[in-house]
Amino acid sequence: MLSIALVAVIVAAVIAIAEAESHTVTFTNNCGFGTPTLIQSENILSTGDDFTSNGPLIGASAFLQTGVCGSSGENCTLVETTLANPTSPGLGSGTDISLIPPHAFSVASGFEYFDGCDGVGKDCADPDCEAAFHNPGDPSLVTICEADNVGLNITFCD
């Protein structure tokens, strides 16, 4: 009987640890048109509602679907993010804005971390903004956050 209780405690602890990490992505659409879209690979995670991952959110992208964007944000301003608790210094969450073709400027877009690294982020208000990647060889423009369980607010027409 003791071994069954011990196994139950261990299983509960593992579940609690696995669910301890979470990240929320929120949207602010000031454009008055379009649908904020969050994708991961080919999967649509959100079309404007807050999205919370239980665990790290790896390789997600967001864009404002205006009717001209492809399913992966082609022809539109793209916000790329990985939200993960840091496992060592220099690691953790990273977010950037991409205008690397086939992506192109569509609307002013920006992001800002919250619940850790509050206020840290970037904005891209025009096709020539220096805050966005324009070519694959551009110097690193990724904004890093080393806080646990950080959230990300993505704003369109900011």
Automatic annotation (TrEMBL):
Signal peptide: 1-20
Keyword Signal: yes
Keywords, alphabetical: Signal
Protein's name in the database: Glycopeptide
Lineage of origin: Eukaryota, Fungi, Dikarya, Basidiomycota, Agaricomycotina
